[in-house]
Request: fold
Amino acid sequence: MRRQIVDAGFCRASLEENERGVSRIAFWESAGGSSKPAGLAARLKKYFDSDNVDFSAVKLDLGDATKFQRKVFAITRKIPYGETRTYGWIARKLKTSPRAVGQALKKNPVPVIIPCHRVVSSEGVGGYSGGLDLKVKLLKLEGALE
DNA sequence: TCATTCAGCGTAT
DNA sequence: ATACGCTGAATGA
Reply:
């Protein structure tokens, strides 16, 4: 398993990948520091620099995700950069409830690559496991939010 | 147009 | 069996 740190100004991210694919991304607050991104890490960095980076081909290792969660993740990955969908929109596609969708998204092990921040509530932005402020920042970064 | 309520469904316990 | 959410629709004022 390989682990890299991406420094992105308003936050830092750790990126883990193994032979099966990317397994986890986690964020934390940043206050300086350094790293040398390469490969996918470089693309993540580019994304944080406000570029439209396409992660749709990135291989993922979803680990212990349930079947339902995988379905939600698959749909979420197809939401284009700069666009949003509602929990209800995904729920209708899967014939389930919006709440169940939120539950599943909360378990997303690889934010950004699976863009769960693009899934918002019908009124407002909804929640985010990495902190609501980060969700808002990502959406603004993509121009999906004023 | 708000503010509450509650239906609905996957998970955790 | 039961309680809880990254919700949303219905209800009531």
